Each structure stands twice: as C-alpha cells, then as structure tokens.
Amino acid sequence: MRHVELEARVPAERAATVYEAMGHWERYPRLAPHVNATTVHAAPPAATCGSSWELHFRSGLLRWTERDDFRPQTLEIGFEQTDGDFDTFTGCWTMRQDDDDVVVRFEADFDFGIPSLEGILDPIAERVIRETVAWAVTGQFPATRLADADEFAPARPDTVAR
Questions:
Q1: Residue 95 CA to its chain's centroid (Å)
Q2: Quick one: residue 43, left, alpha or beta (phi over 0 = left, psi -120 to 50 = alpha)?
Q3: H or E stretch including 125?
Q4: pLDDT one-digit tens code per residue, 7-60
Q5: Could you say which DSSP state residue 141 is in?
Q6: Whole-model pTM?
Q7: 43-60 burial string, b = 16+ CB within 10 Å, else e?
Q8: Which Gene3D superfamilies does the entry link to (predicted)?
C-alpha cells in the first residue's frame, strides 16, 4: 500500500471557504493538467455523494469512481474508490484554521493490486496525485505555500504537456 500526503498553507483565508472550494471536483480539469475529466454524480447537500475521475497516467488514463463523504462540521472530505483501476484507493482532505491562515492536508492510500509492477506504477501514481492536489490548491488560492516546496514544486499547469 502506497501513502501520499501533501500539506499546504493558504494565507489569509477562512477554513470554511477553502473547504467549500476544494470539494468542487468539476473545477479540477481546469486546475490540474493531469485531470482529463471529472464527473460529479452527487454533491452536497445530497446525503450520498460520488464522483468519477480520469487522470493522465503514463500513456493512458487512470480511471475510478469514488464515494465522497463531505463533513462540513469538521471541514473534512473523505473518499473511497468504489470501482476503478486501483485495487484500493482511500483518503481524506482536511482543512484547519491556523490563526489567519488555513492548513490544507491531503492524505491517501492506494494499491494497484499488482505486486510485480508496484515499483514502476506506484511512484508515478504518487507523483500524479501529489501534483494534482498541489495544482488544485494553488490554482484556487495562488498565495498558497506548499509545506515541502523544496522537495516538490509542480510545473505551472499551462506549461505541462498532456
């Protein structure tokens, strides 16, 4: 099982505002070049929410459908794949007010279920997921600072070829 995480600080924002923005999956194809398409099947205030995703991955598309669990009272969005290319894919977005700033934390665990290819596929999938999250946050809140910016800095979306 591979673990992916990314933390970002959004200056001078309210956590509820960031939470609301991050859960608009339909915006992600415009924000992140790896995202080929998203389909929102149901969104809040629906009791059961879900979405389908297509990300550019290697020379094809990585596809999955997930159940999305929006928890506005705790400013969290949990997700779990219900169908798709991963064997398992689960995670959570968390927004937390920190003085005048908002800390956004994304964590996910995934497994393709192909042990013989995990050394090849997992690092690429981790990079694609991390970059997608970074672009989504910085695309909506340009002043965002990534916690590990020295180690990870995505190229500007308009300079990346699909």
A1: 13
A2: beta
A3: helix 118-140
A4: 999 999 999 999 999 999 999 999 999 999 999 999 998 889 999 999 999 889
A5: S
A6: 0.90
A7: eeeeeebbbbbbbbbeee
A8: 3.30.530.20
Answer whether 57's CB lies under 8 Å from 125's CB: yes
- What tokens were used for 76? 């969290």
- For tokens 């997608």, the residue is 132
Cβ–Cβ under 8 Å, residues 110 and 130: no
Residue type, 67: R
CA 156 vs CA 8, 26, 135: distances in Å: 17, 20, 8
Distance CA 129, CA 22 (A): 15
Residue that is written with structure tokens 């001078």 in the block: 12
Strand order across the 145-146 sheet: 35-42, 49-57, 60-71, 76-84, 88-98, 101-111, 2-10, 145-146
